[in-house]
Amino acid sequence: MSFSLPEGTVLGLLGPNGAGKTTAVRVLATLLRPDSGTATVLGLDVVRQAEQVRRVIGLAGQYAAVDEKLTGRENLRLVGRLYHLPTAEISSRADALLERFELSDAADRVVKTYSGGMRRRLDLAASLVNRPKVLFLDEPTTGLDPRSRLSLWEVIEDLVRDGTTLLLTTQYLEEADRLADRIAVVDGGTVIAEGTSDELKDKVGGSVLIARPSSPASLEALCEVFGRLRSGEVKRLPSGEVSVPATGIALVAKAARALTTAGVEVSELGLRRPTLDDVFLTLTGHLAEATEPAAPTKKGRR
Questions:
Q1: Which of 32, 116, 127, 287 sits at 20 to 30 Å (Cα–Cα) from 60?
Q2: In sequence order, which ranges of the chain are alpha helices (DSSP H)?
Q3: Assigned CATH for 207-272
């Protein structure tokens, strides 16, 4: 696996579970020694200069590494002490981060009473206590509801505007699309494609015409109609939908007329840009299933 991240930018590592994203982050964060090759962060070798690397990075993993028996404020102060920050700075830094992540009202509550989204925000706050120059976020929104995910995206965008260099791993194309300057698609421990979100979508192709049959019995008839529209280019998707490359909005009207004439009923019909599954299906031949990983049996501390 090989990639580079210019200072002051955001790189999204996009891939399914087991692709190697977390392993890459653990190597860069000095938590795992590489089997071969080299890796550097701000010019510092992650093996030979591991201690120096740890002073300039922040890490928020897939699971919130916070102590449930402590309050939010106590968690942040604990991290400050682990970084050997001056006592006065620890207190002011904790207060500032609690306010920034909208946790001030819950600052003195024990973390076991926090929601999943609140724990995520606290974990991200803890990763910023030492004012890191480079921040690693390993699937930061996995398991969050849509509202909490959007809230965390806004926080991350604020960090980027402040100049934070960010490496983000995710299974969600929309997350990488919104947050990353560039995206590296990872599969089987290898970067198989790299570029902007639009560049990756262009690898799949332009817009496609998508239709979903009203019943499974209509699938063959739907494929026949689409085949007459674009001969030899019909795809049956694992989702149960059928697609053909689209040259413009006029194809939608043409398809609607053809389906009506053939008596084929569909529940959905329209144009769509390529999705995460489209990208992976084209690049790897399999779907990128964004499944939730199993909960860890033992929590780790950053």
A1: 287
A2: 21-28, 50-56, 72-82, 87-100, 116-126, 146-161, 173-179, 197-204, 219-229, 250-262, 276-284
A3: 3.30.70.870
**pLDDT of 134 higher than 90:** yes
Query: Hey, where are the domains in the chain?
Result: 10-201, 207-272
pLDDT of residue 288: 56
Instruction: Tell me 110's DSSP state.
Output: B
- pTM, two decimals, is 0.76
In angstroms, the CA 65 to CA 301 distance is: 5
| pLDDT tens digits for range 140-152 | 888 788 888 888 8
- Give dist(CA 186, CA 115) in Å, integer: 31
Q: Does the 10-201 domain belong in CATH 1.10.443.10?
A: no
- Helix H or strand E encompassing 190: strand 190-195
